[in-house]
Fold this protein.
Amino acid sequence: MSPLRLLALFIASLASSLYAQNLLSLRGSIVDPTGATVPGATVRLEAPDGKLISQATADSAGNFTLANLPAGTFTLAVPAFSGFATHTQALRLTTGVTTLNITLDPEAVNQQITVGAEQSLSTDPSANRDTVSVTGNELKKLPVFDQDYIATLTPFLDGAAGSSGGVTLIVDGVEMKSVGVSASAIQEVRINNDPYSAEFNRPGRGRIEIITKPGSPNFHGEANFIVRDSTFNAKNYFALVRPPESRRIYEGHLSGPIGHGGHTSFITSASHREQDTAAVVNAIGPNGVINENVSTPNRNSQYSLRVTHDFSPNHRLSLGYNFENSTSTNAGVGGITLPEAGYSLDSREDDAILNDRIIVTPNLINQLQITLEKDEDVTRSVTNAQSIQVSGSFIGGGAQADTAKTENTIHVNEIVTWSHGKHYIRAGVQLPQFSRRAVDDRTNRLGTFKFASLSNYAANTPYVFTGQQGPGRALYWINEFGSFIQDQIRLTPQVQLALGLRYDWQTFLHDNNNLAPRISLAYAPDKGKTVLRMGTGIFYDRTGGDFPAIVKLHDGVVLHSVQIQNPTFPLPPGSNFGSLPTNLARFDQHVRAPYALQYSFGVERQLQKTLTLTAAYRGQVQIKSFRSRDANAPILPPNPSLTANYPRPHLNFGQIQQIESGGRTLLNALDLSFRSQAGRWFTGQGQYTLSSFDSNTGGINAFPQDQYRPNDEWGRANLDRRHRFNLMGNINPDHWLSLGVAASLYSGPPYDETTGDDYFHTGLGNARPLGVGHNALHAGGAASLDLLYNHDFRLTKEKGDKARILSTGVSAFNVLNHTNFTNYIGTLSSSRFGQPTAALAGRQLQFSVGFQF
């Protein structure tokens, strides 16, 4: 070879070597919080201006490689998919091969991490620092009463953001009635995640989002035993003696592989609760005070199983089954409700769940979730007798509550996710409910007498009698449909805009124009230390629960319901309801879905690496709120007599309960919160809310006192609490002397002042004194401090997934034994006017032991 060719070959080899040294590689693995691999995830490496440098898809073992990369500073992103949130982190590549392990968080958890620097705030809508977020591991370090995590986090919700059916529960992206898995199988619980997301019909503070644990390629499990006994409890304020109570909870889960190859895994969970509890009756009868403890035992069993199979790195299918059965005796007893007026509950729920995720391309993911749900609920009265209700004194006789209900429901979620450049788009079609329901209503067959006072009861002068006859069986459908599209646009590294549009429809309401636009904007002016957020959106309400059953039943045929003003007591033998005008329940012909306009703006500030403060204002106006009105109420003369019977306008009918959408609510709130992460002295979050919540309706089943002037009901809403403070976290975390803490401090809610008389002759007995507005009285506040001391004993030297841990804990609820009164009497004719008749439990101790492997 000539010297010239040798020189050329040397120069080419040198250039190739230098080029190879400048082109780097990035290798890594992707796992979930339990350590299980996540195949099929897309990994993107982007330049600071958002330009794509390279991308790859994780293989069946969760591994990925990005080769031939230049040196520099980049953003590594894993787009959201299959229940996991978008993961982003800053990354600097200098020389050689960089190895990186990425742990994905559950969906709705978004992190922005800078390697080698302090954590910065994110402008992602789901990363707002006002979110209440607790992982499954963190929940174990908190004092949780009876492992009821939902009840522990419910105080962070806002009643003004809820719907007519109560709080919305989202489990793995699907709206459900119950969680479906036992406590240890929960991976994360979140409240107020992305408040203006178009994916959901309720704002952030009106829904609880739960992510359950996935299956694992290795065997992992947990078993827990929780016990409480009245021996260690303080006596209830109204109890003369402490009743014998005991609670036992057996709970756990197991996950692992099925077969070989690592393509199939399972997770199963179970819990069984045996609770022998008691209620305190504190009433006034004809012979004086009635005070006694009443046994209220209940049992609950829950089982679940989910199997997941990866057909390929791009296709994952999961099948699951949930079962729950519960029984309760003497439900409803306590306060002024006597033992004879209690009832028994027996319910069962079965769910079959399909979840299919397909990665069409690295930027396009389709996820289909279908849940088949069957519910059976039976209510039986303890005593078969007429119901006797004396305002503010006692409720006795029979409960008259016998019903049997069945529901067969399909829930469907079809979501498509597409990422392109600066856009992250989610769109979907949802069937929150496609439900066929049946009800057998045997309620109030013997009738109910209502008395204004004990003196009226002694004189045998009730102000109304109600009763009903008829077959009582109804079949009907409740169907709901929703669709949405949302685009998260990263306008600049400091500005992110989210635009969304949602459409909702439901049976029984005939308006078809329920379009709900949503918009939110986040701006980080100082490289992530401060984030300014603002947003607004429209949210449509639903009828909620099973309220349409009332309309189907009370049509004058299925049930013949009657109301007799100023009846004789008792009724003459052989009285026939069928000869009297029937009551009706109907939707107003102009009824439509109520809608709320919510708006907010706030600021997040990172004071230290682990401490963030948030201040935000929220406002909400709901238009066309649901309420009921007696559309056949008597038209009274100027000074009506209490004992006279006045005719109704339509003589062929009794009360006509007309459901209208004519109410209005108004919320103004200031939220101040802080979050400390991995702090030396405290890890957790606290939230204070100063708010004013007013309305002229108490809900879909609430009547005004004057049926012809319903707008005069304007006043404090039933759920209004001016001050609310909640705190949960760990003091001195990760040390041998660490305490889990949960604290709450509330001002009191309002309640109504009524005369006890039926001044308006509607049979409702809700008339107020002249000049007294709605909810004019103020109940007492509430305060509670709960603590947990928990210690983990490591039984093996291994760490992480191979560790075996024995955990023991002692929880104390209401440590200070503060008396929190409830059920205030607002009836002027009662000798207990302005006084409470019940109180929450005093101090209670709970012991737990658990084993993790």
Summary: Residues 157 and 466 are 37 Å apart (CA to CA). The longest strand covers residues 653-676. The two ends are 67 Å apart (CA to CA).
